[in-house]
Design brief:
Layout (H helix, E strand, L loop, with lengths): L7 H16 L3 H37 L5 H9 L5
Length: 82
């Protein structure tokens, strides 16, 4: 089952509910909600890492074989042919 990250507003609402429940004294339910919040936040981070990994792979293929900065510096610093 693929992970579908929740919106930042939903995470903020979950955080507020967790704090309200903790203030009312139900520590076990607050702890359970903290686990749900952690799962949601880590899922979002995992998705971001996967996107970054895919982008890095695509970019590597796009720039593979292009001159390096050092190559370009050497090319432009050469004396022109006489």
């Amino acid at each position: 089952m693929p992970w579908r990250p929740t919106s930042p507003e939903a995470l903020e609402l979950l955080r507020k509910v967790r704090h309200q429940i903790a203030e009312q004294g139900d520590g076990r339910l607050a702890l359970l909600l903290a686990g749900v919040e952690l799962y949601a936040v880590l899922g979002r981070e995992f998705d971001l890492l996967e996107i970054m990994r895919s982008f890095a792979h695509d970019m590597h293929q796009a720039v593979e074989g292009t001159p390096t900065v050092r190559d370009l510096e050497e090319l432009f610093e050469r004396d022109p042919p006489s």
